[in-house]
Amino acid sequence: MSSLTDVKLSVLDLSPIPADGDAGTALRNTLDLARQAERLGYHRYWLAEHHNMPGIASSATAVLIGHVASATERIRVGSGGIMLPNHSPLIVAEQFGMLEAFHPGRIDLGIGRAPGTDQRTALAVRGSMAALGAEDFPQQLAELMAYFEPNENRVVNAFPAVGHKPPFWLLGSSGFSAQLAGALGLPFAFAHHFSAQNTLPAVRLYRESFRPSETLQKPYLMLGAAVICAETDERAEWLAGPSGLTFLSLRRGRPIPLPTPEEAAEYPYTDLDRQFLQERFGSNIIGSPETVRKGLEKLVSDTGADELVITTMVHGHADRVRSYELVADLLH
């Protein structure tokens, strides 16, 4: 059975935009956090693709990955993830082949199949109603992977990609990607932070479906975990307030930038709001270092995860850096 000291720790960053800030500040904060994560010994730094969300600045994910990789020296940098149905496989191959050529041995290509946004925005991203489905995701994935391999008979090529293939990951929040990742012998990253009820079934399905490949001889599981760590439980809960209010607003169709803890504390929540937030955020790990240690140890023990990729959505940049510092200390 795995323990916390056996796993690698990584960062998942959405470049949060605070209510009193802007996207430029959020992106500069991402570069600073990436440098801090490298200093603290985190294994990889992943950026997520989301669109039309006023509180998230990481929409042009490949562009941001290039900047983060250039601002750091050793830490692996990648996508958590690129939502493949939003893009042509050729373009993704060109982008990540180029990133790998610039930063050899440091780039990860994590692939998902969700839109990363609402349906109207997905239509704007993909350009047609016919492209809104994801039924051909396995075929898109196969096409993408093929572009990284030489083929003299192929008419269309992604020239930066051939010879510059980053490691592929599949991301998921249900059983579909778990089963596909297992069948292809790829590492699998599961979004425990927003699909906790599906975690154990998906993990089991991934391991049962796994077939050894050139990439992996045995399953490799990463879990996404939402973590907020502060010196005390009370401080951590205070810092967590904005994340809950942001999600509540998104659910109501009115997405907002990340509010301050004061604004979150003063909001007039209904009993139904509180019940919803408890159900949605009950799997988040929030508290003092000791509380967070217990939560992470239980997650690793229950799942046998090989790696945890931690996302921390708090209003203040200094509080976010401090949270990652405290979590890193748990492994030392």
From TrEMBL:
Q: Which residues form a coiled coil?
A: none
The cross-references to InterPro entries, in alphabetical order and at most eight, read: Bact_Lucif_Oxidored, CmoO-like, Luciferase-like_dom, Luciferase-like_sf
Pfam families from the entry? Bac_luciferase
Please name the CDD domains in this protein's record. Answer: Flavin_utilizing_monoxygenases (cd00347)
Domain Luciferase-like as annotated: residue spans: 8-306
The family annotation for this protein states:
To bacterial alkanal monooxygenase alpha and beta chains.
What NCBIfam families is this protein classified in?
oxido_grp_1
Record protein name field? LLM class flavin-dependent oxidoreductase
Q: Which organism is it from?
A: Amycolatopsis cynarae
